[in-house]
Recover the amino acids of this structure.
């Protein structure tokens, strides 16, 4: 028994520090498993083919995942690269969030609003006709498009506005690309009678006109950003400048798992409800967990919100993030994880599109929500650990997938979500009919109709 304790300690230590050395992990795990088999102490959760699990592309570290650390680092990514004027704000926000996490009344109010105001839990829908037409895996859609305001963004906006109220802030700012986070922030500010200012690039204002009108109708001021590429990156930069100039009275509701600590952690935690619901729903409907889970990745909040719940599963579920390949990876794109380099963007160490001089390059995607030259630091860490695989979908492929889903299931999804739908459509025929793919359908497509009409010549 003493030997088992020692082996267990070694396993816990080396499966994290040396996760990239698969041969070493396999050695320790085989010895560990053999010892438990001899002693008759094998855990019930080991009823899978243990050797297949060990030799899979996912290391044992999946069962031990814990991030960020106290300084906000996801491995070498994340952290706080911010001016002195924002240090106190970030520290105050982190402290208040920790208090809220341990406050049952906070959770009770948030859960009540998520149920009665947002409409949670959102359905997990079996896309039966689409699955049948493809002739392979069964595709299930997590219907975040059915949330109040039409996307997953409301989950995070609602949680953060409750933090703003706890901190006594009366002025709220936000950035937005596709407009869904802007609409969600304007919505919760209207609900709690708070002054709301949303920064949005001029290019995104042009292609997301319906959401601009919705924000204004909800009482928000939409400030156009004309610098740079006039998209999400520039809107985020302007919002941070506003926060720097008005640190005392302003609460900044960041819409994705980007930016300085504690935002990537806070946004992930508020979006984790997506994966939590999906786990119970797929077990209730299919009797087991899925083989593959996929979601689109721009900043990455809908993807982390879905993936986080499943990072500790053994055997591991295949998690696939889908970036925007735009016009193709040889042309204009927004595939930061695929082709980006490590650098600092908006207060965090991450992977981003940059030139040889370290200057941030313009990203491109037909979907405004994926048109961002960086990505959340946790995604960089998950890629580094091998816990999530990242691929990409072009503009044209996303449009084709959107059209296919609309024609087979009567669901018009957001262009962002269509990137993940394309992956599912191409992957399903290569799998058996007993296999299961879950797609996080992060938003609805009414905001994109002008682009869809133009691009598909409708």
């Amino acid at each position: 028994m003493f030997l088992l304790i020692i082996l267990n300690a070694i396993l816990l230590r080396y499966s994290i520090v040396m996760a990239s050395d698969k041969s070493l992990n396999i050695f320790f795990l085989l010895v560990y498993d053999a010892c438990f088999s001899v002693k008759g102490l094998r855990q019930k959760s080991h009823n899978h083919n243990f050797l297949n699990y060990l030799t899979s592309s996912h290391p044992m570290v999946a069962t031990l995942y814990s991030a960020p650390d106290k300084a906000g680092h996801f491995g070498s990514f994340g952290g706080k690269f911010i001016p002195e004027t924002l240090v106190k704000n970030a520290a105050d926000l982190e402290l208040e969030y920790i208090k809220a996490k341990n406050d049952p009344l906070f959770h009770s109010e948030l859960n009540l609003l998520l149920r009665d105001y947002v409409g949670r839990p959102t359905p997990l829908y079996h896309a039966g006709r689409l699955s049948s037409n493809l002739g392979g895996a069964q595709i299930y859609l997590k219907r975040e498009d059915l949330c109040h305001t039409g996307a997953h963004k409301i989950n995070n906006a609602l949680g953060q506005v409750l933090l703003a109220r706890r901190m006594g802030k009366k002025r709220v700012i936000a950035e937005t690309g596709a407009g869904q986070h802007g609409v969600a922030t304007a919505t919760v500010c209207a609900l709690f009678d708070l002054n709301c200012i949303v920064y949005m690039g001029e290019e995104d204002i042009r292609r997301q006109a319906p959401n601009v009108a919705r924000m204004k109708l909800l009482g928000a001021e939409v400030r156009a950003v004309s610098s740079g590429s006039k998209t999400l990156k520039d809107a985020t930069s302007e919002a941070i400048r506003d926060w720097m100039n008005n640190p005392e009275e302003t609460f900044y509701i960041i819409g994705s798992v980007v930016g300085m600590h504690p935002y990537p952690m806070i946004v992930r935690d508020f979006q984790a409800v997506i994966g939590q619901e999906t786990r119970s729903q797929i077990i209730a409907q299919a009797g087991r967990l899925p083989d593959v889970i996929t979601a689109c990745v721009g900043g990455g909040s809908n993807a982390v919100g879905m993936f986080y719940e499943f990072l500790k599963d053994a055997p591991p579920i295949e998690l696939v993030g889908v970036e925007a390949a735009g016009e193709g990876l040889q042309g204009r794109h927004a595939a930061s994880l695929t082709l980006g380099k490590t650098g600092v963007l908006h207060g965090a160490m991450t992977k981003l599109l940059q030139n040889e001089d370290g200057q941030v390059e313009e990203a491109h995607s037909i979907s405004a929500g994926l048109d961002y030259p960086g990505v959340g630091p946790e995604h960089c860490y998950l890629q580094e650990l091998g816990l999530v695989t990242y691929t990409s979908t072009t503009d044209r492929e996303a449009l084709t997938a959107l059209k296919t889903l609309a024609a087979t299931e009567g669901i018009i999804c957001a262009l962002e979500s269509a990137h993940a739908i394309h992956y599912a459509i191409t992957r399903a025929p290569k799998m058996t009919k007993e296999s299961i793919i879950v797609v996080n359908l992060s938003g609805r497509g009414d905001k994109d109709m002008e682009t869809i009409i133009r691009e598909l010549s409708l």
User: Anything to note?
Assistant: The first helix runs from residue 2 to 17. Residues 1-62 have pLDDT under 50 and may be disordered.
